[in-house]
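hey so i finally got around to running the thing on that chain from the lab meeting. sorry it took forever, my laptop kept dying and i had to restart like 3 times. anyway pasting the input first so we r on the same page abt which one it is
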Amino acid sequence: MTTIIRKSMLSVAGLAFAGGVFAGPIAAHAAAPTVDAKPVAVVQADKPDVSKLIPHGTQGEQSRITLNGEQTDDAKAIIAATKKAGLPERAAVISIATSLQESKLENLGHLGDANDHDSLGLFQQRPSSGWGTPEQITDPAYATTAFLKGLKQVDGWQDMPLTQAAQTVQVSAYPDAYAQWEQQAADLVAQHWNS
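ok and heres what got predicted. didnt touch it at all, straight out
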C-alpha cells in the first residue's frame, strides 16, 4: 500500500515540476519585451580554443589510431610537460603529433634489429645525437621537455605549419609525415588540457 502512495506522490510531484518548467519559462518569455539582440560567441572555459590548436588547418589526409591507457597517459604527460614549460596548447599539439608519428605515443625502449639506430622513447630521440641518456629520453616528461627546448629554438614556430615546426626539431627522413596526426593531436589536447 505504501508503494502505491509513494508512486502517486511522485507522479503528482513530477506533474507539478513539469508544469512549472513548461509554464514558467513560456509565461516569462511571453511577457518579456522584444530586444534587438546580436549573436554572442560562446567559448567553454574548460576547452582550448580550436583555432589556436590548428591555426593553419590540417594538411593532407589525416590518420587516427585508437589509444590504449598507456598511450593516453603518455599524451597527458606531454600536455603536463608543455604546461610546466609555460608553453601554449599549440606546442602540445605539435609535440603529440610528433610523438604519434615517431612512436604512436608509445614509450619505446631499444627494439634490437628493428631499432632506428639508437632511437628511443616517445619522440625516438637518440642518445648519440645528444638528446640525453637512454634513461632520460625514455622518461616522458624529460623527453617532452627536450623536444620543447628544441621547438623554442625554432624562430617563429608558433606561426609555422605543424609539419615544418616538427621537422625543424626532429630532422626526419619523412618530414611531411607529421601533418597526418594534427587533428588527433588537437583532439587530445582539447580533451585533456584542463583535465
